Amino acid sequence: MRLYNSLTRQKEEFEPLAPPYVGVYICGPTVYSPSHLGHGKSYVSFDVLIRYLRYLGYNVRYIQNITDVGHLTDDADAGEDKIEKQARLEKLEPMQIAEKYTKSYFDDMDALGVLRPDVSPRASGHIPEQIELIKKLIKRGHAYEVDGYVYYSVSSFPGYGKLSGRKLDDLMSGARVSVDERKRNPKDFALWKQAGDDHILKWNSPWGWGYPGWHLECSAMSMRYIGNTLDIHGGGLDNIFPHHESEIAQSEGATGKPFARVWLHNNMVTVDGQKMGKSLGNFTLLKEIFEKFSPIVVRLYILRSHYRSPLDFSDKGLESAKSALERLTAFRARLGRTDSEIAEKPSEETAALIKRTKAVFLEFMDDDLNTPGALASIFDLIRGGNTILDKDDSPANRIVLSGILEELAGTILGLDTAGSASSEANSMELCEILAETRGILRENRLFEATDRMRESLNRIGYIARDLPGGKSKITRK
RNA sequence: GGCGGCGUAGCCAAGUGGUAAGGCAGUGGACUGCAAAUCCACCAUGCAUCGGUUCAAAUCCGAUCGCCGCCUCCA
C-alpha cells in the first residue's frame, strides 16, 4: 500500500517498523462540545485506514487520545482551558464535561460505523508520563523552567519546522508574537504551565502546581502505548502546525529517535468554500445531520471524496449520496440472505466480474486510500451484477455477489448495507407474507387494494415493488 | 509577507504523460395495470486562461486569473 507522507511530501510504499505489527496514533477530539461534520470526515477517513490495514493482515494497535485538559481557547499560553470554560457555562465539574462529550463523541462515531480505538487514553490520566517527558527534555537541554512554567526551546531542536516546511525566521516575521516575557524565544512553546487558584484542573509537579501544554499529551501517550517510533501518526491538516511540529520536537528531543515514520493528514470540511470550524461558528453538528440523513449516508458522503481533498458541505451533496446509497442497498436487498448453502457454482461471468471488481477496488485502496475510486468499482459491480441477475438469478450467483459486497463495501469501507440483520429478520418475514398477499390481489386485478397497500406501506417506510411474473417484493426504504 | 493546496459536465468527484472512472440530476427506449426498481442507449473533441516541452499533455514547465488552508484555538 502506498500512502502520502506529509513529512516527505510524496506517496511512499508503507512498511511498518516491525511487521506484522503496526502502531497508529491519531489525534482525537477535545471533548468540550458535540462533534460536527469535520470530525466525522476525519475519523471516518482514519477508520478506513485502520480497517484496510487489518484487511491486509496487519496487527494494528490503534491509539486515539481524548483531550480533556490543557487545550486553551486562545493564544497558546494565555487562553483559558476549553473544558473549564465549558464547565462554567454548563455549571458542571470539568470532568463531567469531559465525560459528557466523550460519550457524545463515541455515540456519533458508533453511528457512523467508526470502529473504536484499541486504546483511548485521556490526557488527564497521563500526567506522570507527561512530567517524565518534561524532565527528560530539561535534562537534554531542550527545555527550561521559569517561575513554575517550563518551555520548549525551539532553537535547541534543528529539525523544528521539517514537517510544516517552515523556518523559524519566517514564523517570527509574519505571525502574531506572544508577549510572554518569560520565554527566551517568542516561538518557544509551553510544556508546563503554572496554575493559579482559579484553575480547577491542576497537578503537583517538580515545578509546582500546574497543568501540561496541549502538545505534550500526544507525545507522551503515543510513546507510552506504541513506543519511541510510531508507524503512522495522523490528524487534521490544521494540526500540522504548531501541534504536530511540536510533537516531533518533544518526542525526538527526548528520545533522539524518529517519532513517526508516516504522517497522514486529512483535509477539511468546508462550507461555501470556507473551513468548517468551531471558531467560525459555521459548523453543522453530526447529530443535526442525523435528523435528516442516516449516518450511513453521511459515511458514504464522506467516502465519496478523497481524504486529502476538502469536502464542501451541502444538503444537495447529502441528497446525492442518499440516492447513491439507495442503489447500493437495493442491490444488496436483491441478493437476499447470505446464510444459505451454496448448492452450485456461480457462473463464469459472475466469477469474472467479482475478480475484476476486487482487483480494481484493491488497486484504488492501495493508492493512498482512494475511496472514490474504490466506490466506483463497487458501482460497476452493481451494474454488472444486476445485468447478470436479470438473466440468471441463481442462488450461487447471489451468494458470491453478496460475499464480495460484504468484503469490500462492508468490511473495508464500513458501509453496512445489510442493516442490523437480527432486528430485521422478523420484519423481513412479514414483508414476504405481505408480498405474497399482494401477488394474489394483483392476480385478481384488485388494483384499488394494491394501490392502497402501497400507500400504507410507504407511509411507514416500506416500498412495494411488483416484479415481472406476478411476484412482488416489499422492502424497507 | 512566508509555507502549502486547489480550479475536470448542471451538481459532486476519480484520473498526474498514451487519448476523460463513478455517483446524482436529465433525455430516449425495454419492462409494468399504473408505478418503482432494473437493464439498454444518450449525456465533457475537452479538464480556469494563455504560452512552452513532447510523437503524444487534464497530467510536465512558465506566466496569468480565481478560490482555499496554515503561520493564534479548531479534525
What's the gist of this structure?
By secondary structure, the protein is α/β, with parallel strands linked by helices. The chain has helices at residues 37-55, 82-90, 94-111, 127-139, 168-174, 214-225, 240-255, 286-292, 295-303, 315-335, 348-366, 371-391, 395-412, 421-443, 447-459, and strands at residues 2-5, 10-13, 21-26, 59-64, 143-146, 149-152, 189-194, 210-212, 230-236, 260-266, 269-271, 274-275, 311-312, 462-466, 472-476.
User: Helix/strand/pairing class, anyone?
Assistant: alpha/beta
Report the average pLDDT across residues.
90
CATH class of the domain at 15-142 and 155-165 and 215-275: Alpha Beta
Distance between the termini: 37 Å
CATH fold assignment of the domain at 15-142 and 155-165 and 215-275: Rossmann fold
Which percent range describes the beta-strand content?
5-15%
Q: What is the helical fraction, as a range of percent?
A: 40-55%
Number of helices: 15
**Radius of gyration from the CA trace?**
27 Å
Q: Indicate the overall shape.
A: elongated
The neighbouring-strand order within the major sheet is 4-3-9-10
- CATH-wise, what's the superfamily of the domain at 15-142 and 155-165 and 215-275? HUPs
